[in-house]
Specification:
Blueprint (H helix, E strand, L loop, with lengths): L6 H5 L29 H17 L11 H19 L7 H21 L9 H32 L11
Helix pairs in contact: 2-3, 2-4, 3-4, 3-5, 4-5
């Protein structure tokens, strides 16, 4: 029997951030997130995982699914973490925050991959937004990787000058 998308299946993912009936466990870096996302981080991640799992098990991908609220919240979380790492935080300073960033980024990647399998996926605003957030996260990691390589070069060869310093 083919599994298809129906509103009833996705209705269970419309968990609202104001929902007081669910009390998710606070996350280690919840204080770093915007106030509206602090207490709900664990629940958002769980809801996103369930939605992505449902998307991946759908065999009849004839219409683009309705995107639940948890997806927008995930994207806000990743954007918040990107801004934080861009501004002052470096990878390796707090393993729990790093794990949260990579876990969130992994979810966005799975979401983009699964949504891309639906028709008109590339013209959907949620798909485009998720792709853009994923791109920003990958760019951040690319910059961080280049910085690590530069630091490694400098520490192993103190006379080494970067291309910018040679001019």
């Amino acid at each position: 029997m083919e599994k298809s998308l129906d509103p009833e299946t996705f209705g269970r993912f419309n968990w609202k951030k104001d929902d007081e009936s669910s009390t998710p466990k606070p996350d280690a870096h919840a204080e770093e997130l915007p106030p509206e996302l602090r207490s709900s981080f664990a629940q958002i991640m769980e809801d996103v995982d369930m939605f992505v799992e449902t998307l991946s098990s759908v065999t009849e991908k004839s219409s683009f699914p309705e995107i639940p609220d948890c997806i927008e919240l995930l994207l806000k979380i990743v954007e918040s973490l990107i801004s934080k790492y861009d501004a002052s935080t470096r990878f390796g300073q707090n393993q729990e925050e790093d794990a949260s960033f990579f876990g969130s980024m992994n979810r966005v990647s799975k979401l983009v991959n699964n949504l891309g399998e639906f028709p008109s996926g590339s013209s959907n605003s949620s798909f485009n937004r998720a792709s853009s957030v994923l791109h920003r996260a990958v760019c951040l990691l690319d910059d961080e990787f280049h910085a690590l390589l530069e630091n490694s070069k400098r520490s192993s060869n103190p006379d080494h000058k970067s291309p910018n310093q040679r001019r």
